[in-house]
Design goal:
Layout: E1 4-15, E2 18-29, E3 33-37, H1 44-51, E4 59-64, E5 67-68, H2 74-78, E6 81-84, H3 96-101, H4 116-128, H5 144-157, E7 162-166, H6 174-191, E8 194-198, H7 202-208, E9 211-216, E10 219-225, H8 226-231, H9 235-239, E11 243-246, E12 255-258
Parallel strand pairs: 3-8, 3-9, 6-7, 7-8
Antiparallel strand pairs: 1-2, 1-4, 4-5, 9-10, 11-12
Helix pairs in contact: 4-5
Length: 262
């Protein structure tokens, strides 16, 4: 039986006087690939930041690998969970290799030298993301798609069981979007890493992930297999608009298109 890596029960997170997350309850097992979808302001990014303890002070239960989230030191948490935030456009003055090596910080002391296992982890992460030949390049010399791969490589170099990503393919061209999703699928299938990724593209969610978590107004509107959210016709309720389903001859998952009102 697979281990439950994330367990959330009756969780609330309030910002000021507003409940951003309300009564969240769900479980994520090891090896699952979960896409988090929902309208703007639904609480998707907030949920990731509560899991990663960027946001604290919520009420309810969050357990990571069977331990309360609050029981972890920050270094311990970074050894089990890595996080790729939304791209903010800022460029840091590091080479690709230097930046990815920073992903090894949970295993290094403030004055310790890098070890062979650290360099191996970086090389593996660069290889998995297709960046093996770009280690000496500066981040500001890369395209947006290449930089996003570097951020993912740094998270992979942490060697964690759980990878959280906040809109990893946003603002990328179609080729880089596909490349990012292929990388994440490989990491999930070949390395068994549990992936939770926020996306606004519901077709991307349906195409690449086996499980969907849909949030609306800070609450869980649906959590389960990808196909069922379509079959149960829940998208209109979640997003407040109608959708048309277009069957694809080479896929079991239909294309979902917003229905324009006439």
């Amino acid at each position: 039986m697979k281990e439950v890596l994330i367990k959330i029960e009756d969780y609330f997170y309030r910002l000021g006087k507003i409940d951003i997350l309300k009564n969240i309850s769900l479980t994520v097992q090891e090896g699952e690939y979960v896409s988090v979808v929902g309208p703007n302001g639904a609480g998707k990014t907030t949920l990731l930041k509560c899991l990663n303890r960027i946001y604290t002070g919520g009420k309810g239960v969050i357990e990571i690998a069977g331990r309360p989230l609050r029981a972890y030191s920050q270094r311990e948490l970074a050894r089990i969970m890595s996080y790729v935030p939304q791209v903010n456009g800022g460029i840091l003055p590091f080479s690709v290799y230097e930046f990815v090596l920073m992903g090894r910080y949970p295993y290094l002391g403030p004055f310790s030298s890098t070890r062979p296992e650290d360099r191996y982890a970086v090389d593996q992460a660069l290889d998995m993301t297709g960046l093996a030949g770009l280690g000496d390049r500066l981040l500001d010399s890369l395209s947006g798609g290449e930089r996003q791969k570097v951020f993912i490589a740094a998270a992979l170099a942490q060697g964690t069981k759980i990878l959280l990503l906040d809109e990893p393919a946003t603002f990328l061209d179609p080729r880089h979007q596909v490349e990012i999703n292929i990388i994440l699928q490989r990491v999930n299938q070949e390395s068994g890493v549990t992936i939770i990724t926020v996306t606004h593209d519901i077709n991307t969610a349906f195409c690449w992930s086996e499980k969907v978590l849909a949030l609306k107004d800070g609450e869980v509107a649906y959590c389960g297999p990808t196909r069922e959210i379509i079959e149960k016709n829940l998208l209109a309720e979640i997003y407040g608009i109608s959708f048309r389903l277009i069957e694809q001859p080479d896929s079991k998952i239909p294309l979902v298109v917003p229905q324009v009102a006439e």
